[in-house]
Design a protein that fits this description.
Blueprint (H helix, E strand, L loop, with lengths): L4 E5 L3 H13 L3 E5 L2 H10 L4 E5 L7 H11 L5 E5 L4 H10 L3 E4 L4 H15 L8 E4 L2 E4 L4 E4 L2 E4 L2 H12 L5 E2 H9 L4 H17 L7 E5 L3 E5 L4
Parallel strand pairs: 1-2, 1-3, 3-4, 4-5
Antiparallel strand pairs: 6-7, 7-8, 8-9, 10-12, 11-12
Length: about 230
């Protein structure tokens, strides 16, 4: 993911360079264009992993550009950046085929987390079956199941999404805000309370094996510990 190539199209060049510099410091490769026509030309000439498009662009607006991109590539993730907060604009963007939407002003950290989340979903997993051994448990993400010996527990989609994120970062500290943005798409107080509920549920699902633990990191987040870590 660190070598992912991002097409960034932003007509405010000051903001564009700030975003570009920060994403490059995170290890991404970024191509910046300042209007929709240049962006379309570059998109047809180079290979990209994700597109970050401002909506209000000169020569070719972001919505039109996204439609053109979708006709050429149905799979590439698209994030819209806009100063507008109108519900209708968001609906238009998602109907066109956007994967995410950020309203200005936004933090570079949130944009980075959303880019990483979309890249994870768009790339095939190293474990093609997306199954994880957690002590005596086997977590099957595609089928939303957690198996312990002969017992099979069916998870909700959100439970599975949270557990998948913890599995992919097993042994590492996961910040609360990272989990919220990557699973729910936003970081706010009420979603934080929901996360606590889902963590409690997962702990109950995993309580047959004391070597598997989701630990609290006070003021930070959570860490999944397994016998191998």
């Amino acid at each position: 993911m660190s070598k992912a190539h991002i097409l960034l199209i932003e007509d405010d060049l000051n903001l564009g360079f700030v975003i570009k510099d920060n994403l490059e410091m995170e290890g991404f490769s970024v191509t910046l264009c300042d209007d929709g026509e240049k962006g379309w030309h570059v998109f047809t000439q180079l290979t990209f992993d994700i597109c970050v498009l401002d909506v209000m662009l000169p020569k070719k607006d972001g919505f039109t550009l996204a439609q053109d991109i979708r006709q050429k590539n149905t799979q590439i993730p698209i994030i819209f950046l806009t100063a507008k907060s109108m519900k209708e604009d968001k609906i238009t963007g998602f109907r066109i085929g956007a994967d995410d939407y950020l309203t200005k002003p936004f933090s570079i950290e949130e944009l980075t987390l959303r880019i990483e989340a979309l890249l994870r979903r768009s790339k095939p997993s190293i474990n093609q079956q997306n199954q994880y051994a957690l002590g005596k448990y086997v977590f099957d993400y595609p089928n939303l199941t957690l198996r312990y010996e002969s017992q099979m527990q069916t998870l909700t989609q959100k439970e599975a999404d949270v557990l998948l994120l913890l599995c992919k970062n097993a042994g590492k500290a996961m910040k609360r805000e990272e989990i919220l943005v990557q699973v729910w798409g936003s970081d706010d107080y009420f979603l934080g309370r929901s996360l606590d509920v889902f963590i409690s549920r997962l702990r109950k699902h995993l309580n047959n094996d004391p070597t598997v633990e989701i630990s609290n990191l006070h003021g930070v987040g959570f860490k999944l510990k397994t016998p191998s870590l």
